Amino acid sequence: MSAVWRASRAAVKRRRLQTVVIGLVVFCSTVTVMLALGLLLAAEGPFEKSFEEQRGAHAVTTLDRSKVTDAQASASARRSGVAAAAGPFGLAVLDVPTDLAGSPPGPLAVVGRADPAGPVDRVELLGGRWATGPGEIVLGSVHGGYDSGTLGLKVRARGAPPLTVVGFATSMSKSAAAWVTPAQLAALHPKAVQMLYRFDAADTQEDVASSLAGATAELPRGAVASSQSYLTLKRAFSSLADAYLPFMTVFGVLGLLVSVLIVGNVVSGAVVSGYRHIGVLKALGFTPNQVVAVYLVMVSVPAVAGCALGTLAGGLLTEPVLKVAFGGIQTGTAAIGLSPWVVVVCLLGMPALVAVTALVPALRAHRLSAARAITAGSVPRTGRGLRVQRALAGTRLPRAVSMGLGQPFARPGRAGLTMAAIVLGVVTVTVTVGLSSTMIAFGNAGKGDGRARIDVQVGRASQQQTVPKLDDAAIEKLLRTLPGAAEVTARGLLQVRLVGYAQNRFANFYRGDPALPAALLVAGRLPKGPGEVLASPEFLAQHGLVVGDRITLEAEGREVAGVVVGRTMEGNPLALDTTWETLERLSPGTKAIEYGVRLTPGADAQGYVDAVRAADPGLHASVGSSGNSATTTVVGFSSVFTVLLSTVAALGVFNTVLLNVRERRRDLGMLKSIGMTPRQVVVMTVTSVAGLGFVGGLLGIPLGVAGHRWIVERVGIVEFPASMKEVWDAPQLLGLGLAGVAIAALGAAVPARSAGRLRIAKVLHNE
After folding, report:
1. Which of 373-377, 423-427, 495-499 has the lowest mean pLDDT?
2. Complete DSSP assignment for 98-123
3. Backbone φ, ψ for residue 171 (5° rounding)
4. CA proximity to 60, closest of 235, 238, 231, 230
5. Helices in 380-518 by DSSP H: which ranges?
6. What's the count of helices (H) and strands (E) in the chain, helices before strands?
C-alpha cells in the first residue's frame, strides 16, 4: 500500500487540472444533491415528528354542556377504537375587544387544564409558567414564539374578570387559544366541554370520521357541537412547503440525474485517459490489484475534498431555503431543519459513487497486459464512427466543422453521457424560464397601470404607538383630499369563528374603493353585500368549501349568515375577505386599522407620504412594496438550481473535450502540420460538442415545457389561470433551443483554446 499511495499522490500532483475538475464536479454535485434531498425530506417529516412528540389529538371535539354530562364525555374515551383520550375540559369563549399579544380583537377560546401534560395533546410551554391559581391565564402562541414583555399583561374580556398572563404555550392540536385552571374556568361559565382523542385508525379523513363517530355514538343527539381533524392541521402546517414541493421535486430529480451522469462521465473518463499510465505501472511491476487501487485512490482524493466542501456549502444554502419554505408555520418549527441523514448520505454516498464509477473502467484495465494498456487509451478504436465521418467529409461544410461533428461518434458512450447532461441542463433552463414568466405575471396581477400604492397604518395604543387625532371617517376624508389620491380603501381586521369549525380565523373587512382587483379572481365575483366572502384556494380546501357554499360567521356573540362568492388565485390560508357591512353586523363601531391609497399616474408618492405624516402623527404612511415574496422565492430558488446544474453540465462538457484533446494530440499535431490553423482547431473542437448541444436543446425543450406545466398545475396554495400557464412564444423557444449550444460552447471554450495552441514539434516529438 505504500507504493500505491506514493503512485496515487504523484498522479494527483501531476494531473492537477484533472484533479481540480473532479473536485469541482463533486463539489457542485454534492451541493445540488444536498439541496434537493434536504428540501424533499423536510417537506415530509416535521409535522409527524412534532405531532408525535406532543401526542397530538387526532380529533379535537367540542361538546354542548347543555346536552352532555362530564360522566358521559369521560365514558366516550373508553369506546372501541379510541387509543387514548384527554378531558373533559371546560371550554369558554371570551370576547376580547382589543388587540391581544399581536392578535386582533375577537373571540378567545379558553380551556381549563390543571397542567400541560397528559395522554393527549401535551401543551409545550414556551415561556413563563403554567396557570396555577385564580386570575391567571396562559396564552397560546400564534407564531410559535412569544414576547417576554407581554408577561404580566392583563386580558380584559367582556363579562369576565381581568386575567394576568403568566405564560405562553403552543399546541400541535390547536386545541385552545388560552388555558386557565379548572377552577378559574368554572368562574367563566363555560357552555361547552372539550374531548381530545387519539384513535387506532387515523390515516385518512374517513378513518378519523369513522373513529370519531364510534367514540361519540352513545352521546345524546346533537351533543357534538364541532370537531377538528388533525389532517386539516397537517395540511395547514405544510401548506407553504407543499406549494414549493412540486418544483423542489423537479429540480431535485434533475439535480440527482445530472450529478450521477457527470460524476460518472468525469471519473470514468479520467481512468480511461490514464490507460497508458496504467500500462507503465504494470511494466514497473505493479500488480493488477495495485493498479486498480492506485486509480481508486487517485480519484477519491479530490472527490472526498469536493464532497466535504460541498456538504458544508449545501448545508449553508439549504437552511435559509428551509426557513423560507416553512416560514408560515405556527408551531412545531423545532423539527424543521436539515436531516442528519442528508449529511450522512452526501458524505458517504458521493465518494462511494465516485469509487464505483472509477472501479468499472479500472477493472477493464486490470485485465489488460502492460503493452495493450499503454496503447489502449491513446486513440479511439480503429473504425469507430468512420462511416459517419466519411459521410460528413463529403458535404459542403467547412472541413473543420465536418470533422468536429464526426468526433462524438468515435466515443459514443462518452458522447451519450455528455449529451444527456446537456439535455438535463436545457430542461432546467426551460423550467426556470417558464416559472419565472409565470411568477412574474402572478406578481404583477392586479397592479394595473403600475400606479404607486401607499399603505397607511393607524397607530394603536396596544402596540405603544401614537394614536391618531382624527376619527375613522375623518381619516378617510383626509386621505381622499390630499394631492395625488385617486382611490382609498379602508381595512378592518377581526378574529371570527366559522360556526361548525373549532379554530378561529381572521377576517378582513373592506370599505371604499375595491381592494381586490378582478384580475386576482379565478372563480365567482367580488363580495358586495353583508355575509359575502372571498377566500383563497387553500382556505377553502382546509374547510371543505367551494364557491356557493353557505357559512355562518360569529364574533362577540353575534352571527351573520354568509356565502362564499369568489375564489382568489392565492391568499392567506387562515383568513377570508368580506365587506364592511359584515363587520358592522358582527362588531358595530370597530374602526379601520389600515388604509390603502392608489395615487394618480405620475403623482409624487413620497410627497403624499410626507403630507399624511404632517397631517396626523398617528398615521404611519409608507410607499407600498411592488415586489412579491412568492415570486422572489421561486425565481431565486430556481435560478440557484439552474446555475448549479448548468455549471455541472458545463464541467462535464469541459471534461469530455479535455479528454478528447488529450487522446487526439497526435492527430491534432498531424492536422496542424499539413496546414490546419489554430482557429480551425478551435472551431473543430467546439463543433465536436456544439452538435451535441444542439440536439440536447431540441430534446430538452419539450421536457422542460412539460415540467413547467406539471409544476404550475400542482401548486396547492396558488391557482394559476390559463394565461399564466401558457407563457411560451416562438422567440423564447428559439432562444431556449440555443441553451444547449451555449452550455456546450461554455464547457469547450478553455480546452479548445488549449488545443489551438498545441505546438506541432512538441506533440510529434513526444509521440
Report:
1. 373-377
2. S-BTTBPSEEEEEEE-S-S-SSS--P
3. -130, 125
4. 230
5. 386-393, 399-406, 412-444, 472-481
6. 26, 20
Is residue 121 exposed (0-12), middle (13-18) or buried (19+ Cβ within 10 Å)?
A: buried
**380 DSSP 8-state letter:** P
Q: Specify whether the CB–CB gap between 39 and 325 falls below 8 A.
A: yes
Nearest to 668 by CA among 658, 659, 678, 653: 678
pLDDT at 537: 83
* Dist CA 414 CA 265 (whole Å): 7
pTM: 0.62
| pLDDT value at 145 more than 60 | no
What is the DSSP pairing of strand 575-579 with strand 504-512?
parallel
Using CA atoms, how far residue 157 sits from 94, 141, 433, 580, in Å, is 6, 18, 53, 24
Q: Measuring CA to CA, which residue among 582, 502, 570, 503 is closest to residue 538?
A: 570
Interhelix angle 739-756/412-444, nearest 10 degrees: 130
What are the helix (H) ranges across 545-628?
A: 580-586, 605-615
Select from 453, 431, 508 the least CA-distant residue to 627: 453
Q: How many CA atoms lie within 13 A of 156 on its CB side?
A: 6
User: If phi over 0 gives left and psi between -120 and 50 gives alpha, with beta otherwise, what is residue 55?
Assistant: left
List phi, psi (to 5°) of 633.
Answer: -65, -50
Residue with cell 408551531: 331
Q: What is the distance, to the nearest Å, from the Cα of residue 326 to the centroid of all Cα atoms in its chain? A: 8
Quick one: three-class SS letters along 354-369?
Answer: HHHHHHHHHHHHHCCC
Q: Give pLDDT tens digits for 303-327.
A: 888 889 988 888 887 777 666 555 5
Cα–Cα nearest to 434, from 716, 646, 718, 639: 639
Task: Give the span between the Cα atoms of 468 and 620, in whole angstroms.
Answer: 9
Cis preceding-peptide flag for 483 (omega within 30 of 0): no
Task: Provide the 10 A C-beta neighbour count for residue 381.
Answer: 9
Q: Give all strands (DSSP E) within 611-669, no chain letters.
A: 619-623
φ and ψ at residue 128, rounded to 5 degrees: 75, -140
Tell me if residue 529 falls in helix, strand or coil.
coil
User: What stretches of 255-330 adopt beta strand conformation (E)?
Assistant: none
- H or E, element range at 56: none
Which pLDDT does position 515 carry in this prediction? 63
> What whole-number percentage of the chain has pLDDT above 70?
81
Place 509 in a pLDDT band, splitting at 50, 70 and 90.
very high
The pLDDT of residue 45: 55
Average pLDDT over residues 144-159: 70
Cα 543 to the center of its chain, rounded Å: 24
Question: Which of 6-20, 364-378, 528-542, 658-672 has the lowest average pLDDT?
Answer: 364-378
Q: In whole angstroms, what is the distance from residue 720 CA to residue 710 CA? A: 12
Terminal alpha carbon distance of the chain: 32
Rounded Cα distance, 310 and 315, in Å = 8
Is the dihedral angle over the CA atoms 206, 211, 212, 218 positive or is it negative?
positive
Over residues 730-744, the pLDDT tens digits come to 887 888 778 888 888
Longest dimension (CA), the chain: 104
In a 3-state reduction of DSSP, which class is residue 669? helix
Q: What is the dihedral of CA 244, 714, 640, 317, to 10 degrees?
A: 20
Give the model confidence (pLDDT) of 239-248 as tens digits.
Answer: 655 666 666 6
